[in-house]
Predict the structure.
Amino acid sequence: MLSEECFAEGMRAWADKLNELGAEVCRRPDSWLRLGAELDRLCEFILREDNERFQWRLESDRDALEAAGSLRDASARALGALEKMRARQICAHGRSVDLYSSLLSASVREEREGLRLRRGDRVMFIGSGAFPASAFAIAETASEVLCVDIDEEAIRHGTELARYLGMKASFRFLRSHLDDPEFVSAATHVFIASLVPEKRDILRELRSYVRPDCRIVVRYGNGLKSLFNYPLDTGALTEWRAAAPGMTGRIYDTAILRSRTTAYEWQNSHFIASGT
């Protein structure tokens, strides 16, 4: 357990342990349960209210901030390895649930209700991973879901899992959110995963494509939540406006955005781009 006196050192040790367990999963597939348990410990640490005393370290201690970045990178790699193994296990042996998956499922249900997703919606999920639990939950309502991930192995596992769960008809996977500009322009919702580090760059690229009423759901984590999520300065998103109240109190926080571009400006820009 981390202490205030050795906070930075403890986070580096935790990062080393996750890196070790992640590498072991590649050599010994049966060790994925130990990795999942370690990530669950990290979730529990983040959500414990009495651990808020560590917050000041991340705000004022450069060494702690760098160590937090190392732990975040390690947890992202570990989750990627775990999701690939979990996808294989489910396709071979059936379902499994751990704390992170349970927390994610609860968060997705809350998001789905808050966003009022409807039949016929077209949803893009950026940073879907090999085990796109959020996208699967969203697909229960949306008519089409486009998953995006830069990891080709994650795409392969996600595609196999969608086929196994009988969802392949409503699912597609691509490596870039710009590979299908027509879908981006027609999307009703775009989700950006908490473990996507380049959130602001992606938002900048999306702005010229998404329609004005498209809701952008950005997951992020600041403070202690940044140990398992990439952070976001929501105050710097001046080209976007809040489409609905953000959601907090979970393993990650959520900003729900709409572009400040008007319908007229959007239609005019697309008219010019099409050359008609």
Remarks:
- The first strand starts at residue 122 and ends at 126.
- The chain has a mean pLDDT of 84.
- Residues 7-99 form one domain.
